[in-house]
Each structure stands twice: as structure tokens, then as C-alpha cells.
Amino acid sequence: MCGIVGIASKRQDVENDILNTLANLEYRGYDSAGIAVLKNNNILCKKVVGKINDLRNLVSDVDLSSSIGIGHTRWATHGAVNTLNAHPHFTENIALVHNGIIENYDEIKSELQKEGYVFKTETDTEAILFLIDKYISKGLSPLDSVINSLKHVVGAFALAIIFKNYNDLMIGVKKGAPLVVGKSDNHVVIASDVTSISKIVDDVIYLKDENIVQIKSSEIELFDTKGNPIKAEFTKVQKSLSNDINKNGYSHYMLKEISEQPMVIENLNSNYNNIIEIINEQKLDIYKKIIIVACGTSYYAGLVAKYWFEKFTTIDCMVYTASEFCYLKKRLNKDYLVICISQSGETADTLASLKYSKSLGVKTIGIVNVPKSSIDNEADYCFYTFAGPEIGVASTKCFTAQLTVLLKFILGLAEINNETDHDLISKISYELSSINDKINEVLSKQSLIAELAEYCAKFKNAIYLGRQNAYPIALEGALKIKEISYIHAEGYSAGELKHGPLALVDENMLVVVIANSTSEVYLKTISNMENVIARNGNVIIISDKKLDIKNVKQFVMPSIIDDLTPILYAIPVQLLAFYVAKEKGTDIDKPRNLAKSVTVE
Ligand code: AGP
Questions:
Q1: Which of 455, 491, 508, 523 could crosslink 474 through cysteines, CB 3.0-4.6 Å?
Q2: Is the CB of 296 under 6 A from ligand 1?
Q3: Is the predicted pLDDT of residue 601 greater than 80, yes or no?
Q4: pLDDT tens across 373-428, in order?
Q5: For 380, left (φ over 0), alpha (ψ -120 to 50), or beta?
Q6: Whose CA is nearest to atom 16 of ligand 1?
Q7: Average model confidence (pLDDT) for the chain?
Q8: Is the CB of 420 under 6 A from ligand 1?
């Protein structure tokens, strides 16, 4: 999704830090970019379709030196990808950058057109641009113009605005989309996330929804949307964040993040060895109905959790994709616990579901990777996944981190409620504490996966199969390969194959089978695979049991207790997707059309 930055400085070279911050925001996903500075009290704006390097090239011989400016990476929502629609947008009086959506832009546009405003772009952003411009033209102060404009606007968004003739003034707005304010001796910075500015600021304010920030001569003032002052609370910036966003010698963030999984799981094993205390303190053991809400990969983590809830507890667990759940209007009451899983903590659909649940008085907990994110702020309690920044758009380490937290939580509940044999819980906990040896074994054999990937890359369609707790891993494997290699792939529970998808199988179909031999449905999965072989499908099986079947390719896994299949078998499906995408030469860390943090519904 769009990334925004604004810098007001004591120095005259904000353009460099704006461009560097935009480069740090690239991971969010974007298709065009732009920068605007105040130069001799006039707005100077440059935009490109393409990458930040293209923007750097465009401005290389333009003098953008200034003490104040804004920048933007655009992920198109309203209007085609072109320079006209790219941000910043500007008038005679102001320039602004915007992340999120102005839902009632059409209505505002009609009103403003009647007043003579001529809309040139296809964006929703022009509506708020001209609204603020209108109030400025009427003689209101910049702050009052913003406050008055916000009264008319519906939607979830963040803004950074600079004003002609005010070379020391910048205003930011947070209303449903992320925005932080940072400061150092030289700079005050507004940005979409703290990681992108951690090198250039020392302290940061995590803005809350409906906060307006005014930066005037380096002074930071916060207001609510009625203009009442609010006390600013600064937090020291963790400087190590800027190291975490390096590739550390890896060719891609995705590969780095896949490789970090043993470290992440080790951290979680120690950070959550007090899980029973947390459950007791938060009174989480009283619920018999749990609803998990999430999107994409995080949703698949929820699907795995359902298998674990059902096996280890008597809790009724329902799992929903957030975009469906928030409009389902399910009649929740205080008997329910709602768990929202989100790497970014900013996913608009998940956040909307959380707010809906809270509005009914339901206890909500988050499982997030980004502390101080919107879901962290809104939920009654949050489990952090402590995976460090995940930059690759394809989620990898955060998925296994979510699974680890969920499993520890569910085993904790089972132990407290005395619902599962204590020896089984101890066995699983022990195996979880030593799973890294097995993950490292898989990582050390990735050249074999790269060889399989060479074979897979020629297919246009793929089916991933798994049963029971391997079924969500089949879904995740298919999502991973489609999002970064653009091969059309679908995941099915292997037992469903014969109810339809089998019709698709012929010599052109790749079928990836996930089958741990310690599963009670292992042999059934193998039978389902035989159905594919009989129809000339091209099978790759990921399994611990070495098979010798003609024309079937295999990646041999370490042996593991079935309950841990989802965590261990996630690794080869991630690696397979990575190496297929590498083979196909796609932009692995920034796949087309996708965004890392999906802040629109
Ligand atoms: C995963 O590879 C995806 N890029 C995507 O499905 C992601 O998991 C989804 O958008 C949810 O994001 P969240 O975990 O930040 O809420």
C-alpha cells in the first residue's frame, strides 16, 4: 500500500532523506512515486511511474534542495498507474500525499465541481486536496483548513501536507491508516512506519486515530479533529531496526526471512515459556467459543490453529477471512473470544473485524508482529510474534511465528483446562523446543529444492494437496507460489480432489503433495496422490517417508510428530515458491500488484 513521508528540517537537503525514506517504504508495494518540496516558497513536484531509482534518476539534475518536503509511493486504488494519478498532488496553495481511501470522494467532488474546481486525475485524493485548498483560499489557517476539511471526509487514511508560503510548516493526519512522527536534532519527520525513518530520528510518537500533528518551526503539536490539543508521548527509536531492514548478504529479503525462522522460533520458545501466566492474567481460559479472523497467510495460520484447538481442547473454534467476517454481522456476545492475526497489525479488513467485535463488548486479542500497530493499539491484549521486520511481500517467518505462538497458547489452554493428556503436551512442547534442528536440516538441503524448482517453473498450473493439518499448508504453498511466481496454483484438501479438481489433472498439471507419514491420514493422502499419477499428473511429494514411484519427484523431510507438521512443512513450500520465482526471474520481494501492508478494505 502507499507509503508517505514528510520532512521539515533545519537543513536545506530534505530531498535526500525523503528519497531514502521512500526507498525504505518500497517493501509496502507500489507502482509510482513522487516528491514535492517548497522551493522559494513555491511547490516543486516530480513524479514517475516505476521505482524509487527511476525517481532518483528523474531528479538527478533538478535542484530540489529545500528544508521542507513530502514524498510518496503509490499503490493504485483509484485510477490507472500514471504520473497524473501519482502523488504528491498539489494546487497553488498546498501539496499533499495520501495513503488510504476517501470513501465519499465522489460526493465531495460533485460539490467542489459546482464551486468551480476542475478535477484532473482519477484519484480520490483530489477531493481532500481541493477541500483543504478551498478553506485556505477562504483565508483560514492551515490547521483550521485541515480540521474543517476532515468534517466532510469519510474513509480510512493518512495525510502529509505542506503549504505554499509556509516554509516551516507541515501537517499530518492519521485516521485509520498508519502514521508516526519522529524527531532528531535536525529533522521532524512524518512517515507511514517507524522502520523507514529509524536511521534519521531518535524519538517517535505513534499517532492514534483522529490525531492531527502540526510541525511548526520544528515544534510538534498534536490535536484531535476538533482542534483540542493532545499531549504527545515520545518513545525512543530502536536503532537496531535499521539493521533489520538490510538484506545481510542474502540476494532477497524473502530468502533472508525464510532463513531467520530458526532464530524466530527460538526467541518465541523462550519469550512464551510463561504462557500459562499470561493466559491466567488475561483470563483467556474462560472461553469456550473462539473466533479467529485474519487474511491471506495469517488466515491460514488460523486454519491450522483450528485443527489444534479441536485436537487439544473442547473449545469451539471458527475461522473467518476478515473481509467476510466484518460484514457478516455475527451475533457475538461476551461468551466469545476474538483473535485477530496479522503480521503488519494494519490490515484494514482485520482491523475492521476487531473494531466490530469490540463494539459488541467482546474480548479481543491480537497476534501481531508490529508493536504499536493499529491492531496492537485496539486489541484488549496482544501476543507479539517477535520476528523482526518482515520486508518481503510474501510472508514467511511471520507465518511460522504465528503458528508457534498459537500452538503454545492452545497447549497452555489445554494444560490449564486439563483437556489433553499431560504427556502428549510435554512431548509436543519438547519437540517444538528442538524443531530448529529439523528446520536447519531442511534449510541445508535447499539446493535440492532449487533443482525441483527448475522442473516446476515450466508449469502454468499447479495443485497443492494435503489432509488435516497439512491442508492449510497446501493452501499456503499455493498462495506462496502464485503470489511470487505468477503460476496459477490452488490448494485442496487431498480428499476433495475426486469431488472436482481431479478433472483438471493431465500431463500439464503440476501437483505438490504434502504428506507426513506420522499423520493418521498419510496412507489416504498417498491414495489421493495415486489418483493423480494414474491421470499423468506431474507429482512432487514432500514427505519424510522415502518413496520409489516412477516419475514421482520427492523432497525428503526429517521425521516429526504430526502435530508439528504445519510448522516444519511450511519451510519447503516457502523455499519451493522462492526458487520457482527465482527461476522465472520475477520481482520476488515486490511481486506485481501486491502490497505488504493492506490498509484498504
Ligand atoms: C502473504 O504472503 C501475503 N502477502 C498476504 O496474504 C498477507 O498474509 C495478508 O495480506 C495479511 O497480512 P497481515 O498478516 O499483515 O494482516
A1: 491
A2: yes
A3: no
A4: 999 999 999 999 999 999 999 999 999 999 999 999 999 999 999 888 899 999 99
A5: alpha
A6: 342
A7: 94
A8: no
Q: Which of 185, 194, 237 lies closest to 11, judged by CA?
A: 185
Best residue among 193, 343, 596 to mutate for probing ligand 1, ranked by most atoms within 8 Å of CB? 343
Residue 246's closest CA among 199, 193, 187?
199
pLDDT value, residue 243: 62
Alpha helices in 231-347 (DSSP H): 240-244, 253-259, 261-271, 275-282, 296-312, 322-325
Ligand 1 centroid distance, CA of 508 (Å): 30
Q: Is the CB of 374 under 6 A from ligand 1?
A: no
pTM score: 0.86
d(CA 304, CA 404): 11
* CB of 343 closer than 6 angstroms to any ligand 1 atom: yes
Ligand 1 neighbour 342 (Cβ under 6 A) = yes
Q: Which residues contact 456 (CB under 8 A, 6 or more apart)?
A: 462, 481, 487, 510, 512, 540, 576, 580, 583
Q: Which of 170, 167, 92, 160 is nearest to 125 (CA)?
A: 160
Ligand 1 atom with the smallest distance to the CA of 594 is 4
Q: What would the pLDDT profile of 311-347 be if each residue is shown by its tens digit?
A: 999 999 999 999 999 888 899 999 999 999 999 999 9
**What is the whole-number distance in angstroms between the Cα of residue 577 and the centre of ligand 1?**
16
Q: Which three cell numbers stand for residue 154?
A: 469519510
Residue nearest to atom 4 of ligand 1 (CA): 394
Contacts of 430 (CB under 8 A, 6+ apart): none
Which grid coordinates are listed for 203?
524519538
